[in-house]
Amino acid sequence: MKKQCAFLLLLAITAVSFSAPSFISKPAFVQNGGSSAWTITFQLNENCDVEVAIIDTINTKIVRHLAAGVLGTNPPPPLAANSLSQTLVWDGKDDFGKSVANTNGLTVRVRAGISTSLTNIALEDLYSFQGSGRSTPSLLFDKTDGTILMLGQNNGKPYLRKYDAAGNYSQTIYPLSGKLSADSVTSYGINLLAGAPWIPKTTAVNGPDGGLAGPIMTSSMLNSGDTRMISLSANGEIVLINGMNMSVIKKNGAFTGSTTQKIITSPAGPAGYTDGYHGPFGPQYFTSSANPEFLYVSGWFYANTNGGGWLTSSVDTGFWADGQVLRVNRTTGVVTKWLKLDSVPTTAADRTTLLGWGTNAISAVHGVAIDDSGHVFVCDRLHKRIGVYDTNAVLLGSIPCVYADYVSVSKRTGAVYVLKRNSGLFTLVKYDGWRGVTAASASISLTTSVDGYKGAPVMELTENGNSTNIWVGYGSIGFRLYADAGSSFNLIKDFSVNAANAMMFERIAVDKSKEKVYIHSWNRKLYSISDWSTYQVKQAYNGTVDNITVAPNGYVYGFASKDFAAGSWSWPVLRFKDNDTLAAENYPNTGRNVATNNIGFEGGWPGNHRGIAVGWQDNLAAYEEAYYLWGYKDTGTTTTTTDKTPLLTFNPALGLGIRWFAMGVKFDPAGNLYAGIATRGTDAITPTGLSADSKFGRSGSVVKYAPNTTGTVTPLSMYSANATVAGHVKIYPQPFGPFAGDNSSACNCRNSYFDVDPYGRLFIPNGTAAKIYIADNAGNTILEFGQYGNTDARGTLTGAGQYHATADIPMAWPTSVATSEDYLYIADAINCRLLRVKMNYALNSTPAFSTQSEKNADWKEFKVSSKPNPFNPTSRLNITLPAASEVRASIYTADGKLVYKVVSGRFNAGNHSFIWNGVNSEGKKVTSGLYVYRITAGNRTYTLKTIMSK
């Protein structure tokens, strides 16, 4: 991580290192005579980041966030430029612009030299795979060490993970480990960075230009939902298959050389059937044989379509006709026919009747398995059986079985396990052999959610001693592990997704007073987490919500689905109480909690809302999908929700929505508005190694607008990496985003969101750089941190789950950052986890304030005493103050441990007495012995001994 805390050149905004900041003159906090103004003074030894706040020590809260920024040539006001000595004036008002009536217990807090440390990783689930019926999960048993490899998806992102035979997590292979050397992962596509070895390039599987609607690390075959692991090579590498293509990677994820090879070289597919929409059809099964030279291929065939990719009739002749098992020479890629069924139906209607539902997903022949004796087991849906053949395709016997989809054979017992799939039907059954067996001995329903397109299931067996475990994978369930219990199956582990790990990891917001984080999930549900010891996740709202914010007044606002006159897809901004259920916070004059009129969006997809913010003056801003960022006034007595002012107008002349050019909006206490826009200034920061990356080129900026002003944004084109802005105050140089820039997807589900704290500091994520930038309001980079890492990267955390220590905070695609007073919360979309990061300071000074009368007082007249001494049961502390002053008094043991806080507050000149009842902070009587009063008054500290005698 890098800090900017040394001498700053005027134009050098990139971060540099610093030595060790210290105070030459410690902070002082003095009231200016009888006025309501106060003066803060301090001096540092070097130009450094600094923040100044007025603290209420009695109620332990911040009254005013006064200043924060980097000292030097261009600090943000009210910090003075080119000076290590700072004098600031506080006007006696809080963040909301209201005068502070009671100044008892106030002090100034000056902190400097910010750094960050990872304290928590939450919501991470290493046993989660989210299914889609049209994706094909994959399992591979590694007999060399008895482990299982799982290839599946979560939140649309591919994961290849390793587990032991009992289902315990071992390792993440993909996304890649940052421990791998750069030269071992070049085939994935990487960027070489300064100060860090490498970071994967970002790509996507959707969009005509590889847009970022669903960013994925690297362009590997692993990203496709149709890719399967089929075997380990002779060198122990993982062999991947997708269509006619093959890719081979190391078991640790390393990948060099050719990205793809042709597993099938001859014959080619039929002319006109190679565009992915006209063929091939059916599920695709590759089965390794006892002879390592050959693979069996089944389920795959070509067909005629209606022009939209849906089968109308299969091809009943030719090499790629349905109803076959083919054999591939792994060395030459030449395919030969091995088994051909007769009388395979061709029309869609006949196929549904004879083979089962789902013409695109069903073939006459599905999965194949081979036992140690060379028997070949074929899922023959046409004849409703598991056919058993010798290696010459001679039928030896069969098991009656309708809708057979996948088959595995136990090496231990010879039992045959079959997955059966049809409309509403997906079951696991067991047959105790195949000679003379006609009925299943065990059966269990896995799901009724079955897709009718092209997805296929998978199964692996792991056997040890007298036990057999069955691993099952399918799109709609993810993965499950069952134990064979004889006449039944017992579930050992379910790897499917639940609420705690179903987050979009995009839109988060934090209640700063409670350290409570709200997370918007993939299914538009809202969850919260506030217990950072157990990471317990609660559903915060029963309805659907899209984009959220927590206002300075503590209310929660969100686009929420309401069935008003605008229709069931109406999405106004609603206001809620910050409680466990987000109850409605109704407006007095309306009796409902509707804060705005309906905020429109294109295409009926609520994921397109671009941002929402509520400021200190009850100003509310909300991005509409069409062409505007609207501003509202939330007075708490609103009688209508239709009054609005256009704050930003996105030029509609091109017929474009703002979806591609805008994301995120915030206010600061002064009422300035900050919007994320796909534009870059002339001083834009580009990290070394990312300048040529087209996806980093999609990065935009946070743009500042003054209160009550309007601006315009004109995109240059749909795919432009830039846009022109007008009416703004500043374009910040730190790279924000990147933006999607892609109109092929209805939902840009991984757009980024920034935050602005009450000091006006900006917290800006960048996915392609895997970094968070902290900038002051003048645009100086205070700190940048983050390095690429997958789920095994744990930063400096120790203990359970420590797989890969990293020097910096690991992340793979930070989409959203939210800040409280002392913590940052970062949503890492690729790793599907929430990072909690502590903001630490090299200097932290909080002196009690002093008035001019305190400074002029004769503190020789200050007196303290305690009576009686020794005492039992109570001790009276007597204090004489020569001037009004802040007084703090506490009791400590002789070795310095805090026992009890006696008093804390501001008191007038004169005599004061305080009673200590001889108890500790828990109300329990203390034991006999020596105790010490420590009294602070007038920026002076005094100690006084007393004895408890029983």
Q: What's the helical proportion of residues?
A: under 10%
Shape: elongated
What is the number of helical segments per DSSP (H or I, 4+ residues)?
2
Sheet having the most strands: 6 strands, antiparallel
Please identify the structural class as seen in this structure.
mainly beta
According to DSSP, the number of beta strands is 75
Q: Poorly predicted ranges (pLDDT <50, ≥5 residues)?
A: 4-18, 205-210, 563-568, 602-606, 636-642, 742-747
What radius of gyration results from the CA coordinates? Answer: 34 Å
The rounded distance between the terminal residues' Cα atoms is 57 Å
Strand order of the largest sheet: 5-4-7-67-66-65
Percent of residues in β-strands: 35-45%
Average pLDDT, to the nearest integer?
A: 84
Walk me through what this model shows.
The structure is a single chain. The protein has 950 residues and is mostly beta strands. Helices cover 1% and strands 45% of the residues. The protein has two helices and 75 strands. Strand 12 (190-193) and strand 13 (196-200) form a beta hairpin. The chain starts with a strand and ends with a strand. Mean pLDDT is 84; it is low at 4-18, 205-210, 563-568, 602-606, 636-642 and 742-747.
Brief digest:
The protein has 950 residues and is an all-beta fold. 1% of the residues lie in helices and 45% in strands.
Blueprint (SSEs and pairs):
Layout: E1 2-3, E2 23-31, E3 38-44, E4 49-56, E5 61-70, E6 85-90, E7 106-122, E8 138-142, E9 147-154, E10 157-163, E11 169-174, E12 190-193, E13 196-200, E14 202-203, E15 216-217, E16 228-232, E17 238-242, E18 245-249, E19 261-262, E20 285-288, E21 294-298, E22 303-305, E23 311-314, E24 324-329, E25 335-340, H1 348-355, E26 365-370, E27 376-380, E28 385-389, E29 395-400, E30 404-409, E31 416-422, E32 425-431, E33 442-447, E34 458-464, E35 467-474, E36 478-484, E37 489-494, E38 503-511, E39 516-521, E40 526-531, E41 536-541, E42 545-550, E43 556-560, E44 562-564, E45 567-570, E46 573-576, E47 612-614, E48 619-623, E49 628-633, E50 645-650, E51 662-667, E52 673-677, E53 701-705, E54 711-715, E55 723-726, E56 730-731, E57 755-756, E58 762-766, E59 771-775, E60 781-785, E61 787-788, E62 793-795, E63 804-805, E64 810-811, E65 814-819, E66 823-828, E67 833-845, E68 850-851, H2 852-856, E69 863-867, E70 875-881, E71 885-893, E72 898-907, E73 910-916, E74 929-937, E75 940-948
Parallel strand pairs: 2-68, 50-54, 61-64, 62-63
Antiparallel strand pairs: 1-60, 2-3, 3-6, 4-5, 4-7, 7-67, 8-9, 9-10, 10-11, 12-13, 14-15, 16-17, 17-18, 18-19, 20-21, 21-24, 22-23, 24-25, 26-27, 27-28, 28-29, 30-31, 31-32, 32-33, 34-35, 35-36, 36-37, 38-39, 39-40, 40-41, 42-43, 43-46, 44-45, 47-48, 48-49, 49-50, 51-52, 52-53, 53-56, 54-55, ...
